[in-house]
Design brief:
The chain is built from ten helices and eleven strands. The chain is α/β, with parallel strands linked by helices and about 290 residues long. Bound molecules: NADP nicotinamide-adenine-dinucleotide phosphate. The site of NADP nicotinamide-adenine-dinucleotide phosphate (NAP) has 25 residues, from helix 10.
């Protein structure tokens, strides 16, 4: 039976560590600040934004929420982001994705000051991750690496398979596993022999967005299985991309859904906000070195 990697417990540790760092900064007169921008009425996005706000408050991080209507004009969103770029109390800016139809996500992300880009989605930060010289790591993959580190699961020399190649999860996940010396394969919807590739994985990360997509016959006995998925099963119940019960019987480690990767994502956002506050106070004239 696989050992559960308890993302809730690990994220609680990280949040407690972050709260201490926030206090240390406050003692120096610095209050880390995060602005969260929500456009439209997507219920899942609203839930995520509320969770982020609550987590900020609990850690002592100042936060501002901007809720804009779905029909917001692109220029108005640019204006808001630009104002936040120049706002001293704000060290981190997060624009909740996905944006409603008609708004160009890429341009909006590119408008965010890379030093305030706590999601690490700006091309400048993505490039830095590629070369291993980063300011921030994207929250979900960073949270997964943190779970592996804290569970003392080494990926060095191991076969790591990431199913999914999105810019926010799959690609950066693969890069972080590579930085930790994993031998990484990325799979996607056009991959041939997906099952066979997954069966070779010592570390299998599922970021597909399809409920129970990874079945037991795709998992090598003893593999470490990380489930990024936040899906709904046939009864509308929250589940992951991994068929949890049968897979947990043969894996060595597994992350549950809920209570695995999800809580880690928020904890890493708090940590990135604190990092942003530290960097901006260490390098006030940061625009010059962007
Ligand atoms: P996404 O942008 O939709 O990407 C899904 C990826 O899965 C794509 O690369 C796609 O391949 C691949 N895929 C789809 N069908 C496939 C198939 N039949 N075989 C192989 N690959 C297939 O999703 P995402 O944003 O990366 O998110 C993935 C999941 O993680 C979702 O359930 C999301 O809700 C969840 N998530 C959770 C957190 C968290 O904090 N827990 C954070 C972010 C996302 P193509 O590129 O070829 O289309």
């Amino acid at each position: 039976m696989a050992k559960l990697i308890d993302g809730k417990a690990i994220s609680a540790q990280i949040k407690a560590e972050t709260a201490l760092e926030v206090q240390e900064l406050k003692d120096k007169g610095i209050i880390p600040g995060l602005a969260v921008v929500l456009v439209g009425n997507d219920p899942a996005s609203q839930t995520y934004v509320n969770l982020k706000e609550k987590a900020c408050a609990a850690a002592g991080i100042y936060s501002e929420k901007y809720a804009l209507p779905a029909n917001t004009h692109q220029d108005d969103l640019f204006d808001l982001v630009n104002r936040l770029n120049h706002k001293k109390e704000i060290h981190g800016i997060l624009v909740q994705l996905p944006l409603p139809d008609g708004l160009d996500e890429e341009s909006v992300i590119e408008t965010i000051d890379p030093w305030k880009d706590v999601d690490a989605f700006h091309p400048s930060n993505v490039g830095r991750i590629m070369i291993g010289n980063y300011r921030f790591l994207p929250c979900t993959p960073a949270g997964i690496m943190e779970m592996l580190h804290r569970e003392k699961i080494s990926v060095a020399g191991k076969k790591c398979v990431v199913v999914g190649r999105s810019n926010i999860v799959g690609k950066p996940m693969a890069m972080l596993l590579l930085h930790d010396n994993g031998t990484v394969t990325i799979c996607h919807s056009k991959t041939k022999d997906l099952e066979e590739i997954c069966r070779c994985a010592d570390v299998l990360v599922a970021a597909v967005g399809k409920p129970k997509f990874i079945t037991a016959d795709m998992v090598k006995p003893g593999a470490c299985v990380v489930d990024v998925g936040m899906d709904r099963d046939e009864n509308g119940k929250l589940c992951g991309d991994v068929d949890f019960e049968p897979v947990s019987r043969l894996a060595s480690y597994i992350t549950p859904v809920p209570g695995g990767v999800g809580p880690m994502t928020i904890a890493m956002l708090l940590r990135n906000t604190v990092t942003a506050a530290k960097i901006q106070n260490a390098i006030p004239d940061r625009q010059k070195v962007c």
